[in-house]
Amino acid sequence: MQLKTKVVATIAGLLLGVSIVGSLINYHKNVQDAQAQLQSTSLPLSVDNIYAEVQQRMIEPLLVSSLMSHDTFLRDWIMSGEADINGIMRYFAEIQRKYNVFTTFLVSDKTKKYYHSRGVIDVVNKENSADAWYFRFKEQPEPYEINLVITLI
């Protein structure tokens, strides 16, 4: 009887050991396959999506500002003396609505007035440190500048 018990215990131990070793091998294989799939499929797709989003968020404001700088209404409004403030406020509000941008503005080099969809919100001045961006931009050779504001939720 003792021999029978030893044989049964040995067979049960072997079955349990083979089962545990098989499970560990299967676990490591699945982990490796999942990592390989992430590296070859999911991560590149995520990077492409992030790149496309960043590109859209950077290029779209450039296109809108380029459109505004070549807009005959805006040029004529400036050349005619910047008189109709309600007209420029409606123009900026419409640009914001149409292109789904957060803000639109214009600083007149002639009058130094800072126009926004809410009206004249400031007159830029070299003495005011908050207006330094305008004068710094005017002195740079590049035709545009991109400022990113990142908010974490």
SSE blueprint and pairings:
Layout: H1 2-69, H2 72-79, H3 85-99, E1 105-107, E2 113-116, E3 119-123, H4 132-139
Task: Briefly summarize what is shown.
This protein has 153 residues and is mainly alpha-helical. Helices cover 65% and strands 8% of the residues. The chain folds into 2 domains: 1-70; 72-153, no CATH class.
Give the number of DSSP strands. 3
**Helix/strand/pairing class, anyone?**
mainly alpha
Q: Specify the number of helices.
A: 4
Question: How helical, in percent, are the residues?
Answer: 55-70%
| Strand-residue proportion | 5-15%
Side-by-side strand order of the widest sheet: 1-2-3
Choose one word for the global shape: rod-shaped
Uncertain spans, ≥5 residues at pLDDT below 50?
none
Distance from N terminus to C terminus (CA atoms, Å) equals 70 Å
Q: What integer is the average pLDDT?
A: 86
Radius of gyration: 33 Å
- SSE succession: HHHEEEH
How many discrete domains? 2
**Largest sheet: number of strands, sense, barrel closure:** 3 strands, antiparallel
Primary descriptors:
three-stranded antiparallel beta sheet; rod-shaped; mainly alpha; 153 residues; 4 helices; 3 strands
Task: Describe the 3D structure.
The chain is mainly α and 153 residues long. The protein folds into two domains: 1-70; 72-153, no CATH class. The chain contains four helices and three strands. The protein has helices spanning 2-69, 72-79, 85-99, 132-139, and strands at 105-107, 113-116, 119-123. It has a three-stranded antiparallel beta sheet with strand order 1-2-3. A hairpin with a 2-residue loop joins strand 2 (113-116) and strand 3. The longest helix is centred in the N-terminal third of the chain and has 68 residues, at 2-69. The mean pLDDT is 86.
